[in-house]
Amino acid sequence: MADVCERMADVCERMADVCERMADVCEWMADVCERMADVCEWMAETTQGNAKGGYMIAIGILVSGQGSNLQAIIDNIKSGKLDAKLGCVISDKPDAFALKRAKESGVPAYYINPGSHKTYLETKRELEYVKCLQEHKVELICLAGFMRILHSDFLRTFKDRIINIHPALLPSFPGLHAQRQAFEYGVKTTGATVHFIDEGVDTGPIIIQRTVEVEDADTEEELAQRILKVEHQIYSEAIQLFAEGRLKKIGRKVKITTSD
Known about the structure:
Largest sheet: 7 strands, mixed
CATH topology of the largest domain: Rossmann fold
Radius of gyration: 25 Å
Strand content: 15-25%
CATH class of the largest domain: Alpha Beta
Distance between the termini: 86 Å
Order of helices and strands: HEHEHEHEHEHEEHEE
CATH superfamily of the largest domain: Formyl transferase, N-terminal domain
Shape: elongated
């Protein structure tokens, strides 16, 4: 009996070893399935873009705050409304909620120290931004609440490939707190503008504008929220036009060409 028990113990030990190896195999297979699911999702997004005749451009987004425009772009990419992919998101603030939004969506997200100045990037820091964008092969840069001025070297590196969203009908109310400026001025109509970036403050050629009526009973916050909804719409529209190669800049004017 002792010999039988010893053999049975040996068999049990071998079975335990087999089970342990099978567990490793199952874990490996689960990892493979997860990676395949990511690949299938990427292929589905690419297929959606190509089916519409659009080019899946890589975009980089510079942010400073909450990132609601970033989220709208992410949602439109996932839904197939936008023929683009997010190359990276960069913030000049380490605690920007936009970074969390990006990471939760699987987008490479970085905080790059802007330097000591509050209104622009220091030259050395700006080179780090450029390097990061180039490493991710970004073709279009979108400023989404990014509160710093870019220098001419940055602009030359990405000539005619940087756009911004502004919560007013430019050239009216440029700069900070545009919604408040419009509200306090007493205009009856305001809105949002997507424009190319140049060396001025909100002075680049205009791509798209959309109006928002100012109601008599509006508060500044209510008006700002309605403008924000329009921003979410027209920013993706402008990106899509860029992706389709339909934006032609002639001096200060941007012509939207017809699609093939």
